[in-house]
Amino acid sequence: MIETKHITKSYQIGKQEYPVLRGIDLKIQEGDFVSICGPSGSGKTTLLYVLSGLEPYDSGTIFWSGVSMNTMDDKEKSRLRAKDMGFVFQSYNLIPHLDVYENLMLAQVIGEKINKEKMMELLEIVGMKEYIHHFPAQLSGGMQQRIAIARALINDPKVIFADEPIGNLDYHQGMEIMHLFQTLNKTYHKTIVMVTHNEDTIRFGTRVIRLLDGVINDEAMVQ
Ligand SMILES: Nc1ncnc2c1ncn2[C@@H]1O[C@H](COP(=O)(O)OP(=O)(O)OP(=O)(O)O)[C@@H](O)[C@H]1O
Ligand SMILES: [Mg+2]
To answer: Could you give phi then psi for residue 181, rounded to 5 degrees?
Structure first.
């Protein structure tokens, strides 16, 4: 589904170039649940952004279902993102003055028919059906993250990218969210690419990739 060939990326600060990704070769298959681990600054978030086309890369190629991102313009990348990708971040990024229903409405691709049934189905999956008219501030962190996950699912993406999605949660709420991701992977066949700091979460996935200084240092299946 996603294949990268020797991706590199540097950030330039003043005249100095700082390499962040130094040749990433990676294959993500449909149905994978990949945990990306590594120390702070190793390039995990950058890799996620580059894979999803949110950040440009300097050299190499990324193929999405066989199509090179090098050949896509910004509009095509945006369309690919809207159609095939969902995003979940450490901070839930819900709009505070909108209730759950309105937050989800906002995430639907413009021009698509608004489908309340679908929305209720997603709220059911994330266990938040009774909270449709709550505002974010009335929900716990774990609940807000559930809504953010429902939002990520609204356009029925193939892949969910998550950047430390339980980083702000206590252990118990974090594990509940991990179970939810596992269900999305196993039952709903979502491919998941998750950045994590927490070794405890790796067991919920199917593969682990360890980054060190912008290269893949280790790669393993999870058993
Ligand atoms: N927009 C930017 N401009 C300049 N340098 C950046 C930018 N974004 C990231 N970097 C640098 O790139 C390196 C990798 O950053 P990245 O955020 O990918 O690391 P990370 O592995 O996600 O770290 P963390 O675990 O702390 O989130 C860091 O040294 C960081 O300072
Ligand atoms: Mg990061």
So the answer is: -60, -40
Distance 116 CA to ligand 2 centre (A): 34
How many Å apart are CA 175 and CA 202, to the nearest integer? 11
Ligand 1: which of 8, 16, 20 to mutate, most ligand atoms within 8 Å of CB? 20
Has residue 44 been placed in a domain?
A: yes
Residue 33 falls inside a structural domain: yes
With cut-offs at 50, 70 and 90, classify the pLDDT of residue 112.
low
Q: Please, which residues have CB less than 5 A from ligand 2, an ion?
A: 44-45
Check pocket membership of 20 for ligand 1, CB cut-off 6 A.
yes
Nearest CA to ligand 1 atom 13: 41
Q: How confident is the model at residue 31 (pLDDT cuts 50, 70, 90)?
A: very high
**Counted domains in the chain:** 1
Q: Which two tokens stand for residue 82?
A: 């809207």
In a domain, 23, yes or no: no
Residue 117 lies in a domain: yes
Handedness of CA 161, 203, 93, 116 (dihedral sign): positive
Residue 80 CA to residue 69 CA, distance in Å, equals 10
Interval between CA 166 and ligand 2 midpoint (Å): 13
**What domain range includes position 195?**
29-55+81-221
If you take atom 25 of ligand 1, which residue's CA is the nearest one? 40
pLDDT band of residue 111 (cuts 50, 70, 90) is low
Q: Which CATH number characterizes residue 134's domain?
A: 3.40.50.300
- Please tell me the distance from the alpha carbon of residue 44 to that of residue 118, in angstroms, as a whole number: 32
DSSP symbol at 76: H
